[in-house]
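Hey,
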Amino acid sequence: MGQTERTTFLTQGVGPITLGILFAVGVKILKTSNHGLPAYAVSIAVCVLMLRTHISPLWFMAVAGLLGGFGVINR
């Protein structure tokens, strides 16, 4: 088995595991942080934008921080 084949097997094996872990972490964050309609709306909007655009996640965190700082979403 060559290096390229090993790399392909590793990539194909680790990819689904990584996606599963990311999904589980996302669900955990949603359960602990969403406590109202504005928070759910922001979470859904960020999820859709993350899937449809190539915007850096740091921008979403910055906007969410500002919304929390101004009291639009709170814990």
